[in-house]
Each structure stands twice: as C-alpha cells, then as structure tokens.
Design a protein that fits this description.
By secondary structure, the protein is mainly alpha-helical. It is built from nine helices and six strands; from the N terminus they run E-E-E-E-H-H-H-H-H-H-H-H-E-E-H. The radius of gyration is 24 Å and the shape is globular. The two termini are 46 Å apart.
C-alpha cells in the first residue's frame, strides 16, 4: 500500500507478487482501516455503520414499557457503542474535524435513548447529565493517556538501563524522588511507581 497526500499527478509504485499487482487503496490493520490518503474517512464510515447496528439493540432495551433503567442502559452504551468509538481513536483522531463530526450523532442518539430525552434536547446537557464527555474531548483524553503511558514506559526502560550500568539501591533513589531531582537524564518523579517493581 502506498501512502501519499500529493494532489498533483504522480505515478504510483508498481508492487507485484508473483506477477500480480498487489497495490490496494485501503487496508485494515488492528481494526483500523487505512486509506492511501490517510483521511480515515472509510474507517469512520465503517465505524458509524457498526455503531448504528449496536444502537438498534440499545433501542430494544430502552423500550418505555418493558425496557431497562437508565443505569443499565448507560452500561450497555459503554460496552456496545463507546468501546467501538474508543478503539483506534488515537490513530483516526488525526482526521479532519468535519469527518470526525460524523460520529457525534451516534453518541447523541445513544444518550437520548438512555435518558429518554426528546429529540430537541441539547447534546451538551445530555453529556452533563450522564457524565459522558463529548467525543472530541474523549479522543483527546485517550490520546494524552496513551502518550503518558509511553513516556512512563520509556522512562522506566531508561532507568532500568542506568541501574544495570551503575547499580543503586532503593534507599539511594528515594531521597532523589522526594526532592524531585534526576538520576542521569531520567526524571525520577515520572517513574515513581515503576522503580519499585524494577528493584525488587
């Protein structure tokens, strides 16, 4: 697959396997559909189609006469719909805002079913009442959490490498952590929860 965002005419590379052209316009990797322009629009459309099917099941449980209560419906929303929206959001969250807004009506419809609200109810008020952030805020939050976890992992590996080169004990690290100093180029405050497992 050839990723390119050039708008001008340019020849695509010819990739063959046993004489067969294997160049494709889009492919799926780890549940995310990558297109050759990296717009993620095919993935967003596919994601919307999957979530609409899950909303049909949520609509059955939200029946007014024999349906579930609000707490149960919110659990169903988080397990059937929201996890699909969260999966791969760190990757496809770089798409255009106009493309990402395609997914906003899915959450609004789901929260409206959970609360039994009217169609004219504001989306912001439903998010506040259900304690669910808007999708753009949730995508940003998941991206920050992913970056923090990666930084902690990198810092922990760096501290582990330094400990192999120059062994130190937990008693040597503890005063440095309390005073927010660094050991080499590693900030010990970042790996405060990691060095204990590495030393024991």
């Amino acid at each position: 697959m050839h990723f390119c965002r050039l708008r001008s005419a340019h020849p695509n590379p010819e990739l063959t396997l046993s004489g067969t052209l294997i160049l494709v316009d889009q492919t799926k990797f780890l549940r995310v559909i990558f297109d050759n322009k990296l717009t993620f629009l095919p993935h967003i459309r596919y994601l919307k189609e999957k979530c609409v099917k899950a909303l049909n099941l949520l609509r059955v449980f939200a029946h007014t006469s024999c349906g579930a209560d609000q707490h149960t419906l919110l659990h169903l929303y988080r397990s059937l719909v929201r996890y699909k929206l969260d999966c791969g959001s760190v990757v496809y969250g770089s798409a255009r805002e106009s493309y990402l807004r395609i997914l906003d009506p899915i959450q609004n419809h789901a929260l409206r079913l959970c609360l039994g609200a009217f169609r004219t109810s504001p989306a912001s008020s439903m998010c506040v009442q259900t304690n669910e952030p808007p999708l753009y805020i949730r995508r940003r939050m998941l991206s920050i959490q992913c970056n923090v976890c990666n930084l902690r992992r990198i810092a922990a590996m760096g501290l582990y490498t330094l400990m192999l080169e120059q062994p130190i004990s937990v008693l040597d690290i503890a005063p440095l952590t309390c005073s927010r100093r660094t050991y080499g180029s590693i900030d010990l405050t970042v790996v405060e929860n990691s060095y204990t497992s590495l030393c024991t």
